[in-house]
Design a protein that fits this description.
The structure is a homodimer of 270-residue chains. Chain A is of the alpha/beta class and 270 residues long. Chain A has one domain (6-257): Class I glutamine amidotransferase (GATase) domain (Rossmann fold, 3-Layer(aba) Sandwich), CATH 3.40.50. In chain A, 25% of the residues lie in helices and 30% in strands. Chain A has helices at residues 20-29, 48-61, 81-88, 100-107, 111-123, 132-135, 180-189, and strands spanning 6-9, 37-41, 66-69, 92-95, 126-130, 140-145, 156-160, 168-171, 194-198, 202-207, 212-217, 220-225, 231-232, 245-254, 257-260, 265-268. The first copy, chain A, has a 9-stranded mixed β-sheet. Chain A has a 5-stranded mixed β-sheet with strand order 8-9-12-14-13, with helices on one face. In chain A, strands 6-7 form a two-stranded antiparallel sheet.
Chain lengths: 270, 270
């Protein structure tokens, strides 16, 4: 029984000249040095066919011989026996970007979802996802929110995610779209969750068994640790009133850095 | 001998229906309940005449009977005896927005600058400034920098400011323009300086004698305290390499909150 690794990508990962993040995902799918067999889920997008063609091409170029399309656009397809059977032979599943609510509303609670969680938790299945495909991994996920605003309770809209990584809340396109406010807002609502802000072309590898996080890619992962928050008006303030937040611990981690999840201590790895 | 109060505004302060920030500035200019006499410096802008007309109208509407234009566009004017004489009778000086380098390159080291510092430090002169007029107040100021980027050494360009508030580095239009990265970058270069991110229509009152900060206005002031930073690659990294930063303390403070400058402890005031 092994929990599989997660690779959360902040969107716009390089697919051509320096595809180091997708290479890392392929590596994570080689269990015990074996053959990677990757399924691609494009449910988040309305252009699933084109996205599958692109990821299929890139993964094949990176040496993956088996790339399966798990193209689910309607709930009824998400429990189809043929789909579930295809999942059995995979060593990794990759979720494309798009809209995270399409992922959860189409796949949440389906047979596909059950098998995904089970194979990830017990069978070491690697799960990767970019943009919406990264956001959906937490228990409670960010759906949308205003960027370029200081945090208010209204800044962020949450929904139940796919529950692959509990205890975190994940945002993507982070620096590029100025999303610190909405991440702070999510953390203020429950400082126990660890806020994760993923920049574009940057990834966080999550190993729950080793309780280790590792950063890959070109930019940084911002970690918002709210456990030491001393004061907040999160519960008393009106929806549009500015949030007060004191004592937030912030880490900005590029490649070569990581963090222990138990102690929440960042450290240099490379 | 009294050090005057500073009022640093993040730009776009309300001038019409709820001009609470400018009202506060007028209040700060009423020393011992006396008559406020305000000088307006529009050096930062290329449209100084129009800006002076606007601030003059607003301050007069708020009950200020003496509003003087200190319109300095060239260095030679900045040491003119007539200008210096006009400063003697003022209880407050307000700096408009524009380009902070115009302020420092035109006024830095002039007789105007000397009198400004002297009257602020010894004579209780209130100094207010919005946008560029706030940025220039620190010893080392942010000139420009990429927004929407995770911090690199290149993210931020610094220059010597007017030195009214040492120990801080100030950024404005903060949440609205996604500037957390460049403020983190500035703090990483010397974690002793306190990073101050001012949202639009929001102000920070700085009382150096009482070592107290107080927030006013509609949104929030973000305080980045880097003293506890444990690790950074600020000195070793290439200019465009992402910065690593661990252990940054962050506070988000709306109106009704403040902070003691000596202990760097935020607290509720209202």
């Amino acid at each position: 029984m092994t929990i599989g690794p997660l690779l959360l990508i902040g969107g716009r990962e390089n697919k051509e000249q320096h595809p180091e993040i997708l290479e890392r995902f392929v590596e994570l799918c080689r269990r015990h040095g074996g053959t990677p067999r990757i399924g691609v889920v494009t449910t988040a997008s309305t252009e699933g066919q084109a996205l599958f063609a692109e990821y299929s091409r890139v993964f094949r170029r990176l040496g993956v011989q088996q790339v399966a399309g798990l193209n689910v656009d309607r709930r009824v397809e998400a429990s189809a026996p043929a789909l579930c059977q295809r999942m059995d032979e995979l060593t990794g599943i990759f979720f494309s970007g798009g809209d995270q609510l399409r992922i959860t509303s189409t796949l949440g609670g389906s047979r596909f979802h059950q098998i995904l969680l089970q194979r990830h938790r017990k069978d070491g299945l690697a799960v990767g996802g970019t943009s919406a495909g990264a956001s959906m991994m937490s228990h409670t996920m960010i759906v949308e929110g205003d960027a370029h605003e200081s945090p208010t309770k209204n800044t962020v809209k949450m929904a139940a995610g796919m529950g692959l990584w509990n205890g975190a809340v994940i945002d993507q396109h982070f620096s590029q779209r100025g999303r610190i406010g909405r991440l702070l807002s999510a953390v203020a609502q429950n400082p126990d969750v660890l806020g994760i802000g993923l920049d574009e072309n940057t990834a966080l590898e999550v190993r729950l068994e080793e309780t280790m996080l590792t950063v890959w890619g070109a930019s940084t992962v911002t970690v918002v640790d709210g456990r030491a928050i001393q004061e907040t008006n999160a519960s008393e303030s009106d929806d549009n009133q500015p949030l007060a937040l004191t004592g937030v611990m912030l880490h900005v981690l590029p490649k070569g850095y990581g963090m222990d999840l138990t102690t929440r201590t960042p450290r240099r790895i490379g």
